[in-house]
């Protein structure tokens, strides 16, 4: 098990969260908390770099949805970048690829 790390940094379009490690039942609240403490404003973007994500279970998927909902309620958009193949497959299978904007790079 790899501990979850989340690094926040400003971007020209808003805020970026670099998420690495295992996103699971024990660490999902950490991602939710990080998103809720991030200052989001209307018209800005929350970019989530998932390139370092090694594992994601259903609790992690739920946390990603919660982060998206939080950003949308603030009027911000969400962009997932560098989504690992294992997570992209889960998002495709669940139809969430239609909910999240995903790109290879910002």
Supply database-style keywords:
anti-sigma factor antagonist activity; alpha/beta; MlaB-like_STAS; 34% strand; Transcription Regulator spoIIAA; globular; single chain; 3 helices; 5 strands
Description:
There is one protein chain. With 106 residues, the chain is of the alpha/beta class. It is 34% helix and 34% strand. It is built from three helices and five strands.
Given the structure, what is the number of helices?
A: 3
Task: Give the ordered list of helices and strands.
Answer: EEHEHEHE
Model regions low in confidence, pLDDT < 50 over at least 5 residues: none
Query: How would you sum up the major sheet?
Result: 5 strands, mixed
What is the CATH domain class? Alpha Beta
CATH topology term = Transcription Regulator spoIIAA
Task: Record the strand order, biggest sheet.
Answer: 1-2-3-4-5
InterPro entries: Anti-sigma_ant, MlaB-like_STAS, STAS_dom, STAS_dom_sf
GO molecular function: anti-sigma factor antagonist activity
Domain STAS: 17-106
Family: Belongs to the anti-sigma-factor antagonist family.
Write the layout of secondary structure elements.
Blueprint: E1 5-10, E2 14-23, H1 28-37, E3 45-56, H2 58-73, E4 77-81, H3 85-94, E5 101-103
Question: How would you summarize what this structure contains?
Answer:
Residues 17-106 form the STAS domain. This protein is α/β, with parallel strands linked by helices and 106 residues long.
């Amino acid at each position: 098990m790899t501990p979850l790390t989340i690094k926040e940094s400003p971007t020209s379009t808003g805020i970026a969260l670099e998420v690495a490690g295992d996103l699971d039942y024990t660490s999902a609240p950490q991602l939710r908390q990080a998103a809720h403490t991030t200052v989001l404003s209307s018209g800005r973007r929350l970019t989530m770099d998932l390139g370092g994500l090694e594992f994601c279970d259903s609790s992690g998927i739920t946390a990603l949805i919660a982060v998206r909902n939080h950003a949308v309620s603030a009027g911000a958009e969400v962009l997932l970048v560098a989504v690992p193949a294992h997570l992209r497959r889960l998002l495709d299978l669940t139809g969430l690829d239609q909910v999240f904007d995903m790109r290879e790079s910002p």
